[in-house]
Amino acid sequence: MAYKGVLEDIRKAIELKKPNQVPIFACSEEFDVRICGMVYNEYNRNADLMAKCQIEVIKKFDYDWAWLQVDDCIEFEPLGVGIKGEGNVLPATVDYLSPTQETLKNLRIPDFQKERRMPVLLQAIKKIKEELGDTICITGRTAAPFSSVALLYGITQTMMLMYDSPQLLKDTLDFFTELQIQWGKAQIEAGANAIWFGDCNASSHLISLKDYQEYAFPFARKAAQEYTKAGAFTFYHASEEKIPYLEVMANLGEGCALSVGPGIDIAEAKKAVGNKICLIGNIDPIKILLNGRPEQVEKETIRIMQIGSKNGGYLFNSGEMIPRDTPEENMRMMMQTARQYAQ
């Protein structure tokens, strides 16, 4: 079971110090919903189911956080973006809005307490807080500004804006910076200790380093620092695996930790930026957790924990979302082994 000092240990790690024990996370929400016998697209619309599932798996697998990533659509539904997904297929954005000044002019920040599924997430955070208090890190979620624009206009149209209409892109980034600051603060007020700040549309897989520095990083940093001022940690995740990008991301500022993708060795990431920012990661959820044998999971967990935790400034996690069909024995092996090496 998670423990009373977890928030202080996270704080120490983010300050690049050695915690009393390394907090152990897992990006496991799809897996967790299966373990609880729930249908995902019922879970993500019901605060009672969200809270029940999170509390159950925290007790079952000994996670040190409640990770309410849910899906990427929550704040975009009220803006008029279409979504598609049913059963255990997570919702995804479709029917994007037209990238015009008229569209931007008509956008408004939603009422988080009333519109679509936004109050569901806030209620789930409150319920988990009431049950578990400060014995875990309750982690809400927002999309970083650049990724938000891509979820509004579509990724292709957003990429074209960098060349066809950079001012419209920057104006929309300003809108989403403010929206995501307010949306994050609403979750913090509900009881979230941290914000999972997703920015996978701004990774090296999609945009150049120059464009990242101009159109993604400054806006992400501004929002992250507002979360810090509101009293929460920021876990920034672009699933990044290239050193030049990680070197820029390492300047997110106070209160932030950087989640690295599974495609880079944790030793390489630690050597490059481990003296600048706390790292999170990065066991491979496909190769190791889904397809590996328990002894492989044990070996890789030990390796990552020993490298990552050396000299502090580290939080253990998977490098990406753990697949729904991951064998339960592999998850137990990862969590038990990580716990053994946490101190």
SSE layout:
Blueprint: H1 6-14, H2 29-35, H3 40-43, H4 47-61, E1 65-67, E2 82-84, E3 92-94, H5 101-106, H6 118-132, E4 137-143, H7 145-153, H8 155-164, H9 166-190, E5 194-198, H10 209-229, E6 233-240, H11 243-249, E7 256-260, H12 266-273, E8 278-283, H13 285-290, H14 294-309, E9 314-318, H15 328-340
Parallel strand pairs: 1-4, 4-5, 5-6, 6-7, 7-8, 8-9
Antiparallel strand pairs: 2-3
Helix pairs in contact: 4-6, 7-8, 7-9, 8-9, 9-10, 10-11, 14-15
Concise description?
With 343 residues, this protein is an alpha/beta fold. The protein has helices at 6-14, 29-35, 40-43, 47-61, 101-106, 118-132, 145-153, 155-164, 166-190, 209-229, 243-249, 266-273, 285-290, 294-309, 328-340, and strands at 65-67, 82-84, 92-94, 137-143, 194-198, 233-240, 256-260, 278-283, 314-318.
What does this molecule look like?
The chain contains 15 helices and 9 strands. The chain has a single domain, classed as TIM Barrel (Alpha-Beta Barrel). Strands 1-4-5-6-7-8-9 form a 7-stranded parallel beta sheet, with helices on both faces. It is 50% helix and 13% strand. It has 343 residues and is an alpha/beta fold. Helix 12 (266-273) links the parallel strand 7 and strand 8 (278-283).
